[in-house]
Amino acid sequence: MNILVLGAGTFGTAIANELSVNTENKVTLFSRNQEKVQEINEFQTNKSCFPNKHLTKYLKASSDKEFIRDADIVFIALPSSFIIENFIALKSFFKDDALFVNLSKGLFEGGGTIVESVKKELDTENVVTLKGPSFAVEVMEHADTLLTLGYTTKQQYETVNKIVKNTALHIDCTTDIRGVELLSVLKNIYAVVLGVVDAKYNSPNTRFMILTKAFSEVRVLLRSLGGSGDTLFLACGFGDLCLTSLNDLSRNRTLGLLIGKGFFSADYKSNAVILEGLNAVEMLHDLIEEDVTKELPLFNKLYNFFANKERELEFKFNELVD
Predict the structure, then answer these.
(1) In this structure, which of 41, 97, 191, 237 has its CB flanked by the most CB atoms within 10 Å?
(2) What confidence tens digit (pLDDT) does each residue in 104-144 have?
(3) Domain 179-321 sits in which CATH superfamily?
(4) What is the pTM of this model?
(5) Which CATH class for the 2-175 domain?
């Protein structure tokens, strides 16, 4: 199976490396950076992403667009803001029956998902999503990792299941593609909240009270935005929410810790992580109905803080349990 991974950043490199463990897969990591391509092919390293890690000898890299023509499966591991422009540029190189697997996270204006946008741009239904609790450094270390596959057809499921065999990647699955895509954004918002709570209160009791409330709010948001509540109980939901909220490798949790400790910079719009979270909060606030927002006290607190309506992110716990 010819697999192309678009994007030689941290997560794209990690997934490509793990897929290449299955020697029935022929995996190529696509990058426009010729120096990075040369480094991967000559030294089996990508030091800009993993300074102390070696890639498998089976993984190859290329900047030649002609490699795209042979790809049976294309993994999307690009920043969400660059995906559509890249697909417009590469559109003519993709096979008509290629399967596209989205690893990227984000929502477009109006609440459209990356999968929905790729389907529209390429005029294909052969697009799935793969998300779950997965730090790239752990994937590089071949740690067993569960991801949720959002798919449409049995053939799509069988194809993805085949290429992850004999790797440390495992899948659970759902046909709720939109729900999987939404959860990859929602969990980042609540990871910020949990970071703030841990920084301010340093209490396991309080942490898990807020995590419980966060779980409930994510379910409300998921349903209101067109996802299925059941998807929350898969790896992309419960698993990813907990991983992102409770582990210090999470950038969004770290942002919450900084806010909680009072190190939040007024120049936040120059920080890509903060800006990404802010954009997601603002977009969701505009999308959801007013009666839904009444069920989201944690979300509202974060929105009001980012919108400068509140100087500090404080929680009145009695308001959360009434």
Answers:
(1) 237
(2) 999 998 899 999 999 999 999 999 999 999 999 999 999 99
(3) N-(1-d-carboxylethyl)-l-norvaline Dehydrogenase; domain 2 (1.10.1040.10)
(4) 0.94
(5) alpha beta
